[in-house]
Amino acid sequence: MSPSTPPEDDPGFPAATAPHTATAAGLDAAVATCRACPRLVAWREEAARTKRKAYLDWEYWARPVPGFGPADAALAITGLAPAAHGGNRTGRVFTGDPSGDALFAALHDVGLASQAVATHRGDGLELYGVRITMPVHCAPPGNRPTTAERDTCRPWLARELELLRPTLRTVVVLGGFAWQALLPVLAGAGWCLPRPRPAFGHGTEVLLVDVRGRDHGELRLVGGYHPSQRNMFTRTLTPAMLRDVLQRGAETAGLPRR
């Protein structure tokens, strides 16, 4: 960190740091040091102290959870935020909670993951052509980040998508929160959004054009319901619906079938 960079607990830390990360690995390392949102820091660390009974022998990650997947992915998946006893425990997005159980099973079914189960970092799981990220990198109370927390965290997402840009073709957006968080990031990066801005819906597809005329000037968004425990229990989202959205993402990104 240079003398001019705000400390990790300054609200300006993400905006000052993210644009200067040169690689996805560097970005992931910087994300994991962030303490810019006091409410989220307090919540993620409290969850690590109190723990759930089933995880008493775990040493919780209790830091911001970085993205996961190859740095040259053609497909990105955006969720909401880590779960307090899922990603906040394991240190990997969508790992160790019911949402992750549903997502990785579906990714494996459509040939985008090496295994159907994700339990912890270092469990051997690999993603093929896919990187998973989120607009808020810390577990929020009640799974509800504030708009201020979302906006403070936004530079991390913007830089991650910028680093992916040479290869990125499609983004599968899981949930309305992620959809609303992503659109201004894409607009700021030079993607032309339709007017009025497209509303979120399961199966919604939007094709964006790069108004700056750079190579690979199209990006497709595919909306899908978030695989939350509630959505899966009520069958608002079924495993087949989730597989279909991910398969559509893979096809539009040009990923080969496995």
Automatic annotation (TrEMBL):
The keyword DNA damage applies. CDD domains: UDG-F5_TTUDGB_like (cd10031). GO terms for biological process: base-excision repair. It holds the Pfam family UDG. Residues 66-246 form the Uracil-DNA glycosylase-like domain. One of its GO terms (molecular function) is uracil DNA N-glycosylase activity. Keywords: 4Fe-4S, DNA damage, DNA repair, Hydrolase, Iron, Iron-sulfur, Metal-binding. The keyword Cytoplasm does not apply. SUPFAM superfamilies: Uracil-DNA glycosylase-like. SMART domains: UDG (SM00986), UreE_C (SM00987). PANTHER family: TYPE-5 URACIL-DNA GLYCOSYLASE. Belongs to the uracil-DNA glycosylase (UDG) superfamily. Type 5 (UDGb) family. This is Type-5 uracil-DNA glycosylase. The lineage of its organism: Bacteria, Bacillati, Actinomycetota, Actinomycetes, Kitasatosporales.
